[in-house]
Amino acid sequence: MAANEAVDDVLETVAAVAPDVRAGLPGRRLTEAGVENPSGETVTAADVHADELFFEALGAVDGVVEFASEEREAVVDVTNAAGDAGATLSVAIDPLDGSSNLESNNAMGTIVGIADEPLPAAGADLIAAAYILYGPITTMTVAREGTVTTYVIDGGEMQAVEEDVTLPEDPVVYGFGGRVPDWPDAFHDYAREVETELKLRYGGAMVGDVNQVLSYGGIFAYPALSSAPNGKLRLQFEGAPIAKIIEAAGGASSDGEQSLLAVEPTDLHQRVPVHVGNEAYVERLENALAQ
Ligand SMILES: O=P(O)(O)OC[C@H]1O[C@](O)(COP(=O)(O)O)[C@@H](O)[C@@H]1O
Ligand SMILES: [Mg+2]
Ligand SMILES: [Mg+2]
């Protein structure tokens, strides 16, 4: 099977699973799984459920040979008995992004990176990336072959609603994670400027906050913190796939010095400072941090 068809299958499979993830949320709303994930965070029953649904479905896709998840320690070899002829795709997934928003019933998402290299892969090796937003409507935004398309997911099917999605030229919103006293001085000074120019939009789920930036223009960041120099978000499951989408939509991404797509992958669960949005804001951020 050609890689292109296998990518189609992965994206269609993710879309097909999304309604089941969503339908499984109510019963798992306030239940913790009683375990920590490889990043040392509390896992909810909804995280585990989403991870299992995506693992079952994506592991069975012909052409997918590696599966990795924010909720699993190691990469799983999912080469099927037939040998996955043709394509050798690796899929890295954040099954439920922003799951702490379950308690307050706010937006959550799923983030997917598809690479044709073994995991952990560099952002530059992603051949497609997508996120699902479980908002009032379930949408899926896909970067592929340099362009971004947004779909509504209806009955597990993808219906394109916007093609060639690009960031608006006049930025409107910003959202920065972490506590202000924990921000390094240079980021603090930059944030003070940005807040005089843009409106604050921070909902506590990266997918929701990034989708606001993609819709209205602006910048989202979960920066380096004094207590956590690599920030909170993970390169494989969050930073790189989101960067792939924002860059394909005409925006920019940065770890503070370089594109997130250029960051060298050293560990499956490595964290990275994340800044994504309109180029001018990301460039100013890099200049501010360089001082
Ligand atoms: O609660 P905080 O510190 O604002 O962190 C919010 C960030 O953490 C995350 O929830 C981490 O993702 P997970 O829920 O997948 O662990 C992001 O979605 C979000 O941007
Ligand atoms: Mg996440
Ligand atoms: Mg998650």
Automatic annotation (TrEMBL):
Locate the residues binding Mg(2+) 2. Answer: 94, 97, 238
* An example Gene Ontology biological process: fructose metabolic process
Q: Does the keyword Hydrolase apply?
A: yes
Domain Fructose-1-6-bisphosphatase class I N-terminal, by residue range, is: 28-155
Q: GO molecular function, one example?
A: magnesium ion binding
Question: Subunit details for this protein?
Answer: Homotetramer.
Query: By what name is this protein known?
Result: Fructose-1,6-bisphosphatase class 1
